[in-house]
Protein: Cytochrome c family protein
Amino acid sequence: MRRRRVALCAVFCVLGVTAGGLAGCKQKEPTPTKPDVPPQTVSAPDAGTPGVKIVLDPTIPPDATFGQNDSTLAQLQHDFDTYSWNTFISANWPVGADGGVDPSQPPGKNGDNRTVWQGWMPATSIFLAGGAPPPAWGAPPVLPAICQGKLPAGGRFLTQVGKTPGLLNESVQPFDTGPLIDQQGNYARFEILVNQVMFNQIVTQKLYSKAGQQAFNAPANFNCGNSKTGEQGAIMVKAAWKPLEDPADAARFHSAQALVYTPASVNPKIQESCTVRLMGLVGLHIGHKTSSAAQWIWSTFEHVDNVPTQEQVKAGQLASRYNFFNPACTDCVANQTPPRPWDPNKKIVVNGKVFKSQIVRVDVRPPLMVDSARLLNAEAKALLGGVNPASVWTNYELISTQWPTNPGDCAVAELEDGSPAPQFLANSTLETYIQGKVPGVSSSCIRCHNNAAMTTAKSSDFTFLLERAQ
Structure:
């Protein structure tokens, strides 16, 4: 396969950072760059296609495809962003009661719809107490006793997320920064799921348990998608949901009935609870390991009503309402972690007022990334609106796609970060409190996940899921 090359020094001049800059979680030290060393290059497979378009197709693309003239960062970003939208559309394709996909029924044609990815295996059903084997693919979610018999047909099972001991039992919000509270004072909820390719590999290699990982005794290396063979690679989905107190709000959200579960805690004292609530999707993060991106392609989407940007706040260009921002509040502190104690069964009250997160987007995307997302969001909205002008799917937007500019070989189990572009990328619902461009602190999907390891301390191939093994 021929590869086109773009000077990496030019790429990072556009990005406004150095090629060795760090982002995300705790970082590996970069190799020092000598002034007389020739610039590194960005590699992009040449698929020979005259152009890359967003399409209504129920098949998740096994890899990104590239146009014939991909010789600039802007063109490559366009193609990766197109891949992200095609993945979003395919992953959200409607499924029937039998779980089958009808190619003639694109998203939104008959109103809101249960999606392909919602039938994937949740992490809560993979990493079980005592390292027990997970149930077979397609089995109902594994539920705690208090939730038994309450799951609505096709419903979700959502628990509070984070790393706070005794309260939050999902690792979506990095760095233990705390919950996300909507404008009704309710906690956002999250879930992580994997596709069948990734699930089968975890089960076959017994990576779901500590004992299995010890017996495996090697770094993880998940399967890559391949556009030549059509083979699907490993895919992870992280979804963020908010309660919809007014059922009328469902007209703007992809929604689902869900069991919202809170485990018991001693300190702080929290009562175990499990209730059925109508939830609206506010964030969707998709990671896909592919032949052109062994460090995975990271696509992040949000509901258009989530938050304003810092620039919009400064200019006073605000909508009348947001999911996680109050435009009428003049003294609310932006991006403030909610005060403790955190009890999802209760609303947080401060000085007699219900606490509500005041989140703004710290937008550090370079202009070319902003332009790429803006243009493709308009194209996708027109395409989905053509199916149904009232489609809930027209209310979601791509924030950006992060991809390795110097991709590795899928056959290699341990890789460097591949110099991701853009350097920093945050979803306001999933990396709420680590937005920005502070090296070693701010969110960067690839660089953060490059530090992920199994319980054996061996590399887990850009996923933190395997550290949950018991």
